[in-house]
Design brief:
single chain; about 325 residues; alpha/beta; Spore Coat Polysaccharide Biosynthesis Protein SpsA, Chain A; 6-stranded mixed sheet; 3-stranded parallel sheet; about 40% helix
Length: about 325
């Protein structure tokens, strides 16, 4: 758990882990990037060797602290769970049956908002769907909380790439999807807090820019035989993101204006559900031409993608 300066929320997060209905061996390591006495005290309420307080020797920053969590963990499966997010009591119960058959990541759906809304425990085993790497052209398979990843694979890929800043998780999930199977359990098992003052609320314009650049990269890698279609899909989904930001924020930085201008592309007014369906169909059509080893060949020795963060303009 990467922690910084929210011990009260951290208490909620730790409680959500302690109240899981499935009893499994686990370790909870709180990597404190601000080294707060209050944070240490919250972890100290749990008189168990499974809950560990680990102050970072120096301030690493958000993404650096995510990687610190990967490095400190010892289990086969690891989750980076922020100090302001929580898990519903049935989370482990929902995902444990699916940590096999070649999966590199397993996640659930999430709820979101300023406080965790009530959710219904699944009455029957929830369905599970694959999330192919091509689907990342629209978005990641889920927000941050509730994603379990194979630690050995995560380390082999070099962890989270700090050059991608606030979307380093999105870029990392995509790289994971390129080398293995990602499973999404179709039940709400985690809560993603969205509230004023968060880091992502402060850098949303940079997130918009980087997200579009990542989409362009995904389009070129996943649809090499159909470059124009791939670029159109990238622009369409970025335009939809820009419209959402325009509704939420009064500021109009240059990147927002440029992304809103993508609305001039043909058929930009199509319902997003139609385009999402078209992306899934296109993904199946090109699957026979895709070879996963092509992605691995583009990795350098550290496991980081050679083309990371090389774009500088909205194309």
């Amino acid at each position: 758990m990467p922690a910084y300066n929210r011990p009260a929320m951290l208490a909620e997060t730790l409680a959500s882990i302690a109240t899981q209905t499935a009893r499994v061996p686990l370790e909870v390591i709180v990597c404190d990037d601000l080294r707060m006495v209050e944070t240490c005290a919250v972890v100290g309420r749990y008189a168990s060797e499974s809950f560990v307080y680990s102050p970072n020797p120096a301030t690493l920053g958000a993404v650096g602290n995510w990687n610190q969590c990967l490095n400190m963990a010892k289990g086969k499966w690891v989750m980076v769970l922020h100090e302001d997010d929580t898990l519903y009591p049935w989370y482990f119960e929902s995902v444990l049956p699916h940590l096999r058959n070649g999966a590199v990541a397993v996640c659930t759906m999430t709820s979101r908002g300023p406080v965790a809304p009530e959710a219904q425990r699944p009455q029957v085993p929830p369905s599970v769907v694959a999330f192919p790497s091509r689907h990342f052209l629209k978005s990641s398979m889920t927000p941050f909380p509730g994603v379990l990843v194979r630690r050995d694979v995560a380390l082999r890929l070099g962890g989270f790439d700090e050059r991608w800043g606030p979307i380093a998780d999105y870029e990392f999930w995509y790289r994971l999807g390129c080398v293995g199977k990602i499973k999404q359990v179709r039940t709400v098992g985690a809560f993603y807090r969205v509230a004023p003052g968060q880091w992502t609320e402060q850098v949303w314009d940079d997130m918009l820019r980087l997200t579009h650049l990542l989409r362009l990269r995904i389009a070129s890698e996943q649809f090499p035989l159909y470059p124009r279609a791939g670029r159109w899909l990238a622009r369409f989904f970025t335009y939809r993101n820009a419209r959402c930001y325009a509704e939420r924020f009064r500021e109009r930085p240059e990147v927002l204006r440029r992304c809103l201008a993508l609305g001039r592309i043909p058929f930009a007014g199509l319902p997003s559900g139609w385009v999402w369906h078209a992306l899934r169909v296109a993904s199946r059509l090109v699957q026979q031409h895709s070879r996963p080893e092509q992605f691995a060949a583009r990795l350098d020795g550290s496991g980081k993608h050679l083309s990371s963060a090389t774009y500088v303009t909205i194309a």
